[in-house]
Amino acid sequence: MTTYTRSTSHLQGDPLVRGIGWASALLGASQVVAPAGFARALGVNATSRHRSTTAAVGVRELVAAIGLLGRPHPAWLWGRVGGDLMDLMMLTRALKNHNGRGFGRTVAATATVTAVTATDVYVAMTRTHRSTPMELTAITTVTPPPDEVHALWSDLKRLPDFMAHVDEVLVTGPRTSHWRASAPFGKAVEWDAETTQDVPGELIAWRSVEGSDVDNSGEVRFEPAPGGQGTEIRVTLRYDVPGGALGKAAARYFGEEPHQQLDDDLRRFKQIAETGEVIRSEGAPGGKRARGEFPQHPARPLTDGELKEALA
Questions:
Q1: What gap in Å lies between CA 138 and CA 273, rounded to an integer?
Q2: What gap in Å lies between CA 138 and CA 261, rounded to an integer?
Q3: 94 and 187, same domain (yes or no)
Q4: Please, which pLDDT band fits residue 57 given cuts at 50, 70 and 90?
Q5: Does a structural domain hold residue 165?
Q6: I need a labelling partner for 162 at 20 to 30 A (CA). Which of 48, 58, 129, 290 fits?
Q7: E strand or H helix at 181, and its extent?
Q8: Interatomic CA distance for residues 305 and 309, integer angstroms
Q9: Contacts of 82 (CB under 8 A, 6+ apart)
């Protein structure tokens, strides 16, 4: 059986975090080794006070580099953001008190630090695992009976066929599975889940195990539709949104509204349950592009045989 382990830190090996760490190391080393030259490169006089300030900032950068490259944690990222703001304040003061010589270099340095600050804020926000609990519910009706619908949903390997953000589900045991899914800003998340209830034709319930990238749980209930015409599916999902309310708003801004996602997933499941595949209209893109499309066949007229069968 394949086993899966999660790193002690979700930042280990993150290319952006490591890039910032190495940038801090190089910047800090140059400031500590040659504070006078670095001060002049910023367009300020290499006075004793400026050299001392430059060296102190260099020590701060080296400490941040050690943290980010050795034991990365969001606190180191937010510490860099705080340091960036201090640097901007000092550069702004230098611009106000400038005597004219090297003014262009100071302007360029201020613009560079502003861009670096924006980058650090983005990385800190997207790598900070704050969360906001969310619960989603949705209902749809399909024509097959509850037993068939339950059996289709129980086939975990087929879930990516209709769940837009789920890339892969691997069965790891009688009641356990490993999930890999797409997340906002091009990131990916993985977690292990366990089935907590499985009543044929009635209910499937699950929850993620402790330490998962995304804490989640949910249930799917299968009930006979009114008049015995198929199955009514009731889905309830509970999970924590990475990034808190800010992450939730950002995801919505980029077209990743959770409620709409669930409705779309159920629409695709309905098509699979009733026709065996997801159907799209002519001209619509195929493939899992933009997290919203799936390998689908274009809508087409019925063949003579299909038409006769439908009219029979």
A1: 17
A2: 10
A3: no
A4: very high
A5: yes
A6: 129
A7: strand 176-182
A8: 6
A9: none
* Per-range mean pLDDT, top range of 44-48, 211-215, 229-233, 288-292: 229-233
Residue 54 CA to residue 46 CA, distance in Å, equals 10
Closest CA to 122 of 77, 71, 186, 60: 77
| Distance (Å, whole) CA 160 – CA 181 | 9
Question: pTM to 2 decimals?
Answer: 0.51
- 101 shares its domain with 137: no
How far apart CA 2 and CA 14 sit, in angstroms, is 24
Supply 292's token pair: 């919203």
Same domain, 72 and 218: no
Query: Model confidence over 119-144: pLDDT tens digits?
Result: 999 888 887 755 557 788 999 999 99
E strand or H helix at 178: strand 176-182
In a shared domain, residues 144 and 252: yes
Nearest partner of 65 among 29, 41, 14, 117, judged by Cα? 29
Do 186 and 248 belong to one domain? Answer: yes
DSSP code of residue 38: H
User: What amino acid occupies position 198?
Assistant: D
Judge whether residue 309 has pLDDT over 70.
no
Instruction: List all residues 6 or more positions away from 155 whose beta carbon is below 8 Å from its beta carbon.
Output: none
Side-chain-facing half-sphere of 280: CA atoms under 13 Å: 16
Summarize pLDDT for 256-287 with one digit per residue, the tens: 577 788 899 999 999 999 998 887 654 444 44
